[in-house]
Amino acid sequence: MALVEITPQEYDVDIDIVYATDRNFTGAPIYSRPACYLHRDAADCLKKAIAMARRHGKRIRVLDAFRPQEAQRALWNHTPNPDFIANPDLGSPHGRGVAIDLTLLDANGKELDMGAGFDEMHTRSNHGADGLSKTAEANRFLLLAIMVSAGFEYYDHEWWHYQLPDARKKYPLFSDSSLPQSMLK
Question: Active-site residue 120, yes or no?
Fold first, then answer.
């Protein structure tokens, strides 16, 4: 299978799949279990990013990765905002397993200040947003440098979202049935 499971033990990451909780913009769980999968190519890039973050005394917390097409449709049906939610008819890099939503943790396991929360649908979530504190801006730059150096590209509207280049051209879409165990209800 092209998708591999990302586990804390194998990848030395913290995993907090927000869409398996009610701590997401819909206010309800989208996934029935907090699984984390990526395409093999993205998983290889993630390993590079983890090593770079470690060199800076940081760890990565994964907030979302592969998102089944069925979940993408549920998010779009709740909030059809193309700046923050990919139209499921076009397919999302998440649905291809080559996108990851993440943040950085300090040595004590505390999330770094990024100036806006995960999935905060506001212009302050944009890369290069005005009005951020110097600390938040520096933290975003560190995350950006790590992820781009590891082979990902950024999405301008979301400081937390990174994906492999040419995702829609190079990688097929996957559904929940592609997984060894369902993520959905």
Answer: no
For the chain, domain boundaries: 3-178
CB neighbourhood size of 177 (10 A): 10
- Residue of 10, 70, 153, 158 with catalytic role: 158
Exposure string for 136-154, b = 16+ CB within 10 A, e = fewer: bbebbebbbebbeebbbeb
Q: Report yes or no: 50 and 12 within 8 Å, Cβ to Cβ.
A: yes
Known binding site: residues?
Answer: 94, 101, 161
pLDDT tens across 144-173, in order? 999 999 999 999 999 999 999 999 999 999
Q: How far is CA 87 from the centre of its chain?
A: 17
For every residue of 53-86, DSSP letters joined together read HHHTT-EEEEEE----HHHHHHHHHH---TTTS-
User: CATH assignment of 3-178?
Assistant: 3.30.1380.10
Indicate the annotated binding residues for Zn(2+): 94, 101, 161
Best CA proximity match to 174, nearest among 49, 77, 66:
66
Calculate the dihedral angle through the C-alpha atoms of 104, 109, 114, 117, rounding to the nearest 10 degrees.
110
